[in-house]
Design goal:
The protein is mainly α. The chain has two domains: about 80 residues; about 90 residues. The protein contains eight helices and no strands. This is CCR4-NOT transcription complex subunit 10.
Length: about 200
């Protein structure tokens, strides 16, 4: 009789086989990271900014570089809503968009995320960041370098930027809006020249 309670004796031979799990397919830490990011996004979308902060901060440590600007923008708005310093995250996000290369996987979807976030800023009456984020979205769209595909998207960005000026007609905001509209027109011109 076996003294090990986990092993039953049998008249047949017992075989042990070693099973390995391919860690490239599943990692518990990846799952937790995904869930944390998802919770932060849900709370952000619901306007529960204070509750979203810890989830967004945690996610910021684990997401790929390409996704960091999105989280930084979300985190900046959450911090702003809680009357905390947020400019550093806003600046990092907008600066990194300018430096990103054109090898983004889903460039159109990525730009749409920026627009979604800009609309949140606009709703929260954070007009200058909204204009800057709409412009960042236009910049991302322009990286596709296909004028016919991008023209409607850039036009929508311009319309969104104009809507901010209608909501906030301070001289500094109008000046920023005019500057960004001019820059988008210049993006279109340079894209058109590249196609010719």
């Amino acid at each position: 009789m076996s003294t090990n309670p986990k092993v039953k004796e049998s008249s047949t031979n017992l075989q042990c086989t070693e099973t390995t799990v391919d860690s490239s397919k599943f990692r518990f830490e990846d799952m937790l990271s995904f869930l944390t990011e998802d919770d932060g996004a849900s709370l952000f979308n619901e306007g529960k900014y204070r509750e979203a902060i810890p989830f967004l901060e945690s996610s910021l440590k684990t997401v790929p570089d390409q996704e960091q600007p999105l989280l930084q923008l979300k985190l900046a708005l959450c911090l702003r809503a809680c009357n905390r310093e947020y400019n550093s995250f806003l600046t990092k996000a907008l600066t990194s968009v300018e430096k990103q290369d054109t090898s983004l996987n889903n460039i159109m979807g990525y730009a749409e995320e920026f627009i979604h976030i800009a609309k949140k800023y606009e709703k929260e009456k954070s007009f200058v960041p909204a204009v800057l984020i709409y412009y960042a979205s236009a910049t991302i769209y322009s990286k596709t370098m296909h004028v016919t595909t991008v023209f409607p998207k850039l036009s929508n960005c311009m319309t969104d930027i104009l809507s901010v000026a209608q909501e906030n007609s301070t001289q500094s905001c109008v000046k920023l809006v005019l500057s960004k509209l001019t820059q988008i027109i210049n993006l279109l011109k340079s894209m058109k020249e590249c196609e010719e």
